[in-house]
Amino acid sequence: MRTEQLEYIEAVTRLGSLRRAAESLHISQPALSETVRNLERELGVDILDRKRSGAKISSAGRELLPHIVGVLDAVDALRRAADDRHRTSRMIRLGTVNAATVPLLVPTIQAFRAVYPETQIEVTGAQQAEIHRALLEGGLDLGLVNYLQGDDKPPGLATTELLRGRPVVCMRSDSPLAGLSSVSVTDLLGQPLIVMRAGYVMHRYVHRLLEGRSPTFSYSTDGAEMGKLMVAEGLGATVLPDFSVTGDPLERTGLITYRPLAAADTYVQLVLQRPPSDSLPAAARALHDMFVQSAETYVRDTAAAASGASDRTAGRVADPMRMPPAS
């Protein structure tokens, strides 16, 4: 039994004759008649009454008609669901807490585009709680989120660690802080400070680091990318995970740099989270895997660059605290 046979029966019933059904279906009347006869032989029922004046559905056919229509409706529903799924797979929704580490995000999207040129990626900046909620409610496919050492992960999401690094002080390359091998809290308090807004992991970290003390002046901003731009414009320094600065375009061009915190006693994780269900589109699963590959490449490349940095650039300090992702 084929779906087209049921469609032919429905057309004959709806249009009242084999001739009109054949015209509507763009097939010959003999071909239509033979297709219907094959179904009748398979079912052992005369579905049509054939007379010289034409063919109409038989009484037995009328009893079967609701079942035929039900099958066709189910097939239509299946096709619509498959079409919706296809369209959904052409848009991946990615949430990130900080435009998510440009040195990792940009090469991953570039690699993805080379393999899936027709699939769009919608990148949305949001705070951690908003990303978690959207992942659980289906508003996002993937989320890039930072955690401090010891933070609990939400049980309803699958979590993959991508990068692990230390908090560092990000400053303009001509800042007095850039002449230090490491930055103390006292050094930091003597400079204008750009802090992340409440709700970000680095806001919580800086609040704990300063222990209630206030810098000479402070700004509040959303996300690391805006913080780095403000640093590049000379507005002050900021505290970020090292992986958010190393390899950033502003760092590569020499506008900004970073130094380790003398008091750094924890690490920051960048993780990729997703709903645990198997309904994640294939393209989103592929993007997930590419993030993992890009993170491995990033760790390898930055470690190699750090080992030779002191030989290439006077005054640059290699990062001795970089930690690879947990195995």
Question: How would you explain this protein's 3D organization?
Answer:
Helices cover 46% and strands 20% of the residues. By secondary structure, it is α/β, with parallel strands linked by helices. The chain folds into three domains: 3-88, Winged helix-like DNA-binding domain superfamily/Winged helix DNA-binding domain (Arc Repressor Mutant, subunit A, Orthogonal Bundle); 91-164 and 269-304, D-Maltodextrin-Binding Protein, domain 2, CATH 3.40.190.10; 167-265, Periplasmic binding protein-like II (D-Maltodextrin-Binding Protein, domain 2). It has a five-stranded mixed beta sheet with strand order 4-3-5-12-6, sandwiched between helices. Strands 9-8-10-7-11 form a five-stranded mixed beta sheet. Helix 1 crosses helix 2 (18-25) and helix 2 (18-25) crosses helix 3. The longest helix is centred in the C-terminal third of the chain and has 31 residues, at 282-312. The radius of gyration is 31 Å and the shape is rod-shaped. The two termini are 53 Å apart. Residues 313-327 have low confidence and may be disordered.
Work out the count of structural domains: 3
Shape: rod-shaped
Report strand %: 15-25%
Going by CATH, the architecture of the largest domain would be: 3-Layer(aba) Sandwich
What is the rounded Rg? 31 Å
Low-confidence runs? 313-327
Brief descriptors of the model:
327 residues, alpha/beta, Arc Repressor Mutant, subunit A, D-Maltodextrin-Binding Protein, domain 2, 3 domains, five-stranded mixed β-sheet, 11 helices, rod-shaped, disordered C terminus
